[in-house]
Amino acid sequence: MFYGQLMQDAWVAEQLQHFDLRRGYYVDVGCHDGHELSNTLYFAERGMPGLCIDANRRTLELAKKTRHAEFECCAVSHKNGEVGFKVSHINDMLSGIESVYPDYKIECKTLATILDEHHAPKEITYLSIDTEGHEYEALLGLGDYDPQIITIEHNGKSEKASKILDWLWSRNYLVRNVAWDFFAIKDRVRFEK
């Protein structure tokens, strides 16, 4: 069973069909509650180890109850520090970094910092990023980590989408646009058992 809103997990599973998922590693930035519309739950259910990251304290606690993974409660950007976070009263999934009227302040880290702290492998099998507008900044903080497959939301915002696309192309990803996400895989990557 797949859970991704745009079938991100089904597409990634197709790319990994000849790969022993237990040998991989996923990172889910903006994991929400770890279940609803999750891009990584399918892989966790099949034994792939991974890391779930979210700045919404309440929904991350829900994820901890239903997922077997490592967890990090923080915002993700291109530099370490502190940022404001706004919880959406319409839907928790729409929560994000907010500087004007935040609900609370939260620690903000680069992906490289978080991955270093969790002793993640340098080669990430699958990276999912959905942070309601802060996706490009999250990519900028990857450091020398090398995701083989990325799905990343751009919400159709042309300037942000253009920056994300340039970043992906400059690192040799083949990119497919699906609604408000980019599905990207490293050129010439082959997954074998």
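The above is record 1. Record 2 follows with the same two-line structure.
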Amino acid sequence: MRLRQLTSLEPEAILALSDTALTDALRPVGYYNVKAQRLQALCHWLVQTGGLQALMRQSSEILRQGLLSVHGVGPETADDILLYACERPVFVIDAYTRRLFGRLGYIAGDEPYEQLRAGLEAALMPDVVVFKEYHALIVEHAKTVCRTKPTCICCILRNECAFAATHA
């Protein structure tokens, strides 16, 4: 929010900010010095590759490889960008997904990122709207019910949940 108030969210505008202005704008999000460096690296990459419109013409795999080449962009961030900014049917695996599916007993929890992503993408139809909605529902459920200290008694999934069965 503070960054948006300071400047447009265009890569060139972000790169035009001083390091101090950028870190100050990011201060509320925590780890602001690291995030400022990573945001600058992503913006440099975006500008060097011709901007978002040029990237949108690339295949998802090439675009993902490019994103992963940017300092500080890992698989989850790359997939977030692909799904939410580029409208590509890529499922995002995050801590919420691991927590929920681990507690339900669907995964062990230590599987590699790519294995989980491929499994979910194979289980669901490759649909951007479905992936966004499913991911949003997982995040909401994990934030409100299946928290670090879960409230299993309130959980609609408790009858199907391996964790709730052993911790009720």
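The chain has two domains: 1-88, 89-168.
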